Amino acid sequence: MGVRPGFALALVLVILALAGCSATDARESAARDAAQAYLDAWASGDLAGAAELTDDRTAALLNLRAVATSMGFGEGEQPLRTEITAVELDENGASVTYQATWKFAAAPDWTYDARLELRAGEGDDLTIGWATSAVHPDLADGETIEWSRGLAERASILDAAGDPIFAPTAVVVVGVDPARVTDLAALAAALAAALGISAEDVVASVSASQPGQFVPIITLRRPDYDVVRAVIVDLPGTVFREETRQLAPSASFALGVLGRVGEATAEVLQEAGTDYAPGDQLG
User: What's 207's DSSP letter?
Assistant: First the structure.
């Protein structure tokens, strides 16, 4: 029995349609895989690996490192979660939209949408066409991202005359950037000798942190810092942050009555709850 011409034509059209769908699915899968590889490398802290997946490794690595440092996380695992939400194919490659969510300690999550432009490279492999918008859609060349959080201003404690006992006081936070340390044991010993603190605690805090992070060691009133500045300012690894805090006239002023305000310890944070983080002034 012969095949009717109309049936043969329909069969050919169906086969061609299925082949077209298969090719499109393969291109979309390749674009999704390439984008996911970049996003996974970025979130894991493999910034060099993420940059290698772009068409401008030098610029990408510089930008990613700048963001990691200014966000305060250094070159380690980033508190970043990503999810690809759309893939749009074009004749040159694909545009991949993803949702980024940064998770911060004791602060709300920050979520936004961004887009990656993928282009065919050697051997038809897809690479990320690098632009700062691959990190955030509003990020321009030469810009980075910073975040900060703060607590509500503490209410004043007044004396008998109605004047505040606590006043804005200039302080200097002495810290360490692990990336700048050349000899941790020597640095810890020098800080311990100059500041009267535990060298072991310095080593433990710095060892538990990532390169590029600001690791707070001690907070000094400005006059106290000026006394030791010449001894510690040039130590390899030390970094400093100037702040203003509400403090009593002296560290021991009416301590039994007023108590003490200082940086939250692990024990204090267990009692205070999840709204607070290391470095918060509690008391």
Answer: H
Q: Give the domain 167-282 fold.
A: Penicillin-binding protein 2a (Domain 2) (3.90.1310)
Evaluate whether 189 touches 141 at the Cβ level (below 8 Å). no
| pLDDT recorded at residue 20 | 47
The Cα 281–Cα 263 span in angstroms is 5
* Integer Cα distance of 190 and 172 in angstroms: 18
pLDDT reported for residue 127: 93
CATH ID of 8-134, from 3.40.50.1390, 3.30.390.50, 3.60.15.10, 3.10.450.50: 3.10.450.50
Q: Which residue has the higher pLDDT, 165 or 125?
A: 125
Measure the CA–CA gap between 229 and 82, rounded to whole angstroms. 43
Q: 3-16: string of b/e by CB count within 10 Å (b at 16+)? A: eeeeeeeeeeeeee
Beta pairing partners, 239: 175
Pairing of strands 80-90, 93-102: antiparallel
The per-residue pLDDT for range 68-110, each reduced to its tens digit, is 888 878 778 888 999 999 999 988 889 999 999 998 877 788 9
Q: The whole model's pTM is what?
A: 0.55
| DSSP conformation letters of 104-153 | -TTS--EEEEEEEEEEE-GGG-EEE---GGGT-TTPPTT--------PPP
Rounded to a whole number of angstroms, the CA Rg of the chain reads 28
Distance separating alpha carbons of residues 68 and 245, to the nearest angstrom: 27
